[in-house]
Design brief:
The complex is a heterodimer of chains A (about 450) and B (about 300). Helices cover about 50% and strands about 10% of the residues of chain A. Chain A is α+β, with helices and mostly antiparallel strands. In chain A, strand 5 (about 255-260) and strand 6 (about 265-270) form a beta hairpin. In chain A, helix 2 crosses helix 3. The longest helix of chain B has about 35 residues, at about 25-60. The two termini of chain B are about 20 Å apart. The chains are: A alpha+beta (about 450), B mainly alpha (about 300). At the A-B interface, helix 1, helix 3, helix 4, helix 5 and helix 7 of A face helix 1, helix 2, helix 3, helix 6 and helix 7 of B.
Chain lengths: ~450, ~300
């Protein structure tokens, strides 16, 4: 299929020879052949256009003439304004990103032997319904990093670069030597060289304990240093385990940060070993020990993909997942029809791959790229299913688009006048393309 | 299409230029090739993972689903079960809606192909006043958004008693499928060699016979592309069925859509349901790749 048809234009010019009837058909026969199509088109496509235009000038009950009131609502109604704004974002970003990706994929797949397999994978989403794609991406964007793959990956990347805390919700238990101060836990007394210090905490859920935690051991003691243990001072069961002393049934806090603070300055710091023991140098003499707050932060939970601020970009992402393959296949067809000699000539002249791409490939493909982008723009104007399915109820207002607003106004808010105005507005937006199609085809039909 | 394909296979003087390149630039190119491969593999994973996630989610018991991500099956493959599918296929709402999907899709596809072919043939080979103008008018309707017709047709169907019926949904799909069908088939039929039609005419074939015995068989490839495109379009539709069907006539997309509101609690319905609704389109896609691609390419304007 050539690219021309994608924009709704004609395939390669029709045969110029006269196509007079071979049979000398009577007009009644022609009418019979055409009748079913024209009746259905008239009743289901043409009549509704006229009806919508007229309806858009009447009020919501349909009884009173309303002038341009319904069109005014397009620019004053909050819901429609959000929808308009989002539609602009959609029309600007979705087609361009999808086309750009399609171009990159089409050019790169030419260089690998398994290019066809790759194309198959990227094109596959075109076969499935927007509903199925919506459900797929509801799963992908699930807020919980233990369910949604987007956040699972994002949190993974985030925790690789930013330190994650290992002990959320840990806090001092009864009779603890520690007191809370602005999220930190600080010893009440100062320590001196040779001391052994116990820093017990409670409250870390068993399944949240780091995997490498070992049974806590009491500090060994070192005359020239300060030694201590920090551990989970809790054993399940009543009266089991000694309060304030490490028991073999209790786990150390591996990696817990311990700081020695003297006069508001950190003079020494260390991290606990797997059994919860730590050692501080003599420099910490006379300091208070502190377990800083970043030990106890709630774990990073990733982005709220479907929250008010990210929901539109997230849904656009799912649209691109569906339609980049379309752009890729069309562009690949254009690429296959490109004169290879030109590319080779540029390479022979010493152009590198980037220059060939930028100065030869892209300019030659410009018509195809334009067709793909325009086709996607028309498509994006009418996007409905993805937004309807992916945006959760709480952020659907923020993700609103015109087609969705039309559905709401027409079928759940009982404002058919405003809904008709939206539909006429959508129609006006595609009329230039309609004229373009007709003009191009007229030249071919008239031969 | 064929001309493009021929051109690709034409030998290009790659070998000659390669030999003239310096060792350095060849090294750079080799490295570049490696990077390209890595990039494409990552992108391919990006495109595959969401669907795999749905598939695996549909094969896990619901209680595991709330406990952890679907990727856990790679360490615990014993989780996999058809439990959710079993339960789903005993749900009469879902099975009825699957039947409705077929009841809507098959007639809507046949009607569009048949009516579109009749009109396409008339526009291509019959003489009547204003023929080209009528055809251009039909082509103009190609890009009309379905949204324009939702409210008027809802009222019209309400008056005719078609609202909520399978027939109503079928008619709407047929109406909006026709511009593309007429456009595609008229252009394809116009390419049929005149001699073939004249020969058949000399044998005494009438207009209808000519259409059935000569034009339709010759139109095979275009009809296949159109049929596949229309089939998938209707099968995958949600909006039109959402407006025009009721609980008795709703297709699978609408039945699942009502479940999305409680997303998370009923993933055991949504995931297998979505996958079942995808099976037929994916089978069509893999079985008829070429026709599928050309159909989607040509019909994307809708």
């Amino acid at each position: 299929m050539t690219t021309a048809t994608a924009a709704g234009g004609a395939p390669p010019p029709a045969a110029p020879k006269s196509r007079k009837s071979v049979t000398g058909t009577r007009k009644t026969v022609a009418a019979l052949f055409l009748l079913p199509a024209l009746v259905l088109l008239g009743a289901l496509v043409v009549y509704p256009i006229g009806y919508s235009v007229v309806r858009s000038f009447y009020d919501q009950t349909g009884d009173g003439f309303a002038g341009f009131d319904n069109y005014e609502a397009l620019f004053t109604d909050d819901g429609i304004r959000t929808a308009l704004k989002n539609n602009v974002i959609w029309v600007v970003f979705a087609p361009t990103v999808a086309t750009a990706l399609g171009l990159i994929f089409a050019v790169l797949t030419e260089r690998v032997r398994w290019g066809t397999a790759f194309k198959l994978i990227v094109f596959m989403p075109m076969a499935i319904s927007m509903l199925a794609a919506g459900i797929i991406f509801r799963l992908v964007y699930d807020q919980d990093p233990d369910k949604g793959v987007a956040n699972a990956v994002w949190v993974g990347v985030h925790d690789t670069f930013a330190e994650s805390s290992a002990f959320p919700k840990a806090h001092p238990g009864r009779d603890s030597p520690l007191v809370a101060r602005q999220g930190d836990f600080v010893t009440k007394a100062t320590v001196s060289t040779g001391d052994t210090v116990l820093l017990p905490l409670v409250g870390v859920a068993p399944d949240q304990m780091p995997g490498d935690a070992k049974p806590a051991v009491a500090p060994r003691g070192d005359p020239g240093k300060i030694t201590g243990t920090t551990w989970q001072d809790f054993t399940r069961g009543k009266g089991v385990g000694n309060l304030g002393a490490p028991d073999p049934s209790e786990l150390g806090y591996p990696g817990m940060k311990v700081e020695a603070v003297k006069d508001g300055r950190v003079v020494a710091s260390t991290k606990a070993a797997a059994d919860g023991t730590f050692t501080l140098p003599a420099a910490a003499d006379g300091a208070q020990l502190r377990l800083p707050a970043d030990n106890f932060k709630e774990p990073y939970n990733g982005l709220d993909w479907l929250g008010p601020s990210l929901v539109t970009p997230a849904i656009i992402g799912s649209y691109i997942w569906m339609w980049a393959g379309f752009a890729m296949v069309l562009i690949a067809a254009g690429l296959a029809g490109m004169p290879r000699e030109l590319l080779e000539a540029a390479r022979v002249d010493g152009a590198n791959e980037w220059q060939v791409f930028r100065r030869v490939t892209v300019p030659l493909l410009a018509p195809v790229l334009a067709v793909v982008t325009v086709t996607l723009m028309i498509n994006v104007l009418k996007v409905f299913d993805l937004v309807f399915i992916i945006a959760p109820g709480s952020s659907q207002d923020d993700a609103n688009v015109l087609a969705l607003e039309l559905y709401r106004k027409g079928f759940s808010e009982d404002q058919p006048g405003v809904a008709s105005a939206i539909s006429v507005f959508l129609l006006l937006l595609v009329i230039p393309v309609m004229c373009f199609n007709i003009r191009r085809l007229r030249r071919e039909v008239r031969r | 299409m064929t001309t493009h394909a021929d051109r690709v296979t034409e030998p290009t003087p790659v070998e000659g230029t390669k030999a003239r390149q310096s060792l350095g630039s060849r090294l750079v190119e080799g490295l570049g090739g490696g990077l390209v491969r890595v990039f494409l593999i990552i992108v391919g994973l990006f495109w595959l993972v969401p669907t795999i996630g749905l598939l695996i989610s549909s094969l896990r018991p619901p209680k595991e689903m709330t406990a952890g991500g679907w990727w856990e099956v790679f360490s615990k493959p014993s989780q996999l079960t058809f439990e959710s599918y079993d339960k789903l296929l005993q749900n009469s709402d879902i099975t009825n809606s699957l039947v409705n999907t077929v009841l809507i899709t098959v007639p809507a596809t046949i009607l569009v192909v048949l009516i579109g072919a009749l009109a396409g043939y008339a526009f291509a080979w019959m003489e009547f006043p204003g023929r080209d103008w009528w055809f251009l008018g039909v082509v103009g309707l190609l890009v009309v958004p379905v949204q324009v017709a939702l409210i008027p047709i809802a009222e019209l169907f309400g008056e005719l008693g078609l609202f909520g019926s399978v027939l109503g949904v079928v008619l709407f799909h047929t109406g909006f499928g026709l511009p593309f069908a007429v456009f595609l088939l008229r252009n394809f039929f116009a390419e049929i060699p005149r001699e073939l039609l004249e020969a058949a005419r000399l044998d005494g074939a009438g207009e209808l016979r000519l259409f059935l015995k000569v034009v339709m068989p010759l139109g095979g490839p275009a009809i296949a592309s159109l049929g596949i495109f229309q089939f998938l379009w209707v099968w995958n539709d949600m909006l039109i069925a959402l407006v025009f069907s009721d609980s008795g006539s709703q297709p699978i997309t609408v039945a699942l859509q009502t479940q999305v509101r409680q997303f998370g609690n009923n993933i055991d319905v949504l995931a297998p349901g979505a996958f079942i609704s995808m099976v037929i389109p994916l089978a069509v896609f893999f079985a008829f790749q070429r026709q599928f691609v050309s159909g989607v390419m040509a019909g994307a304007v809708k």
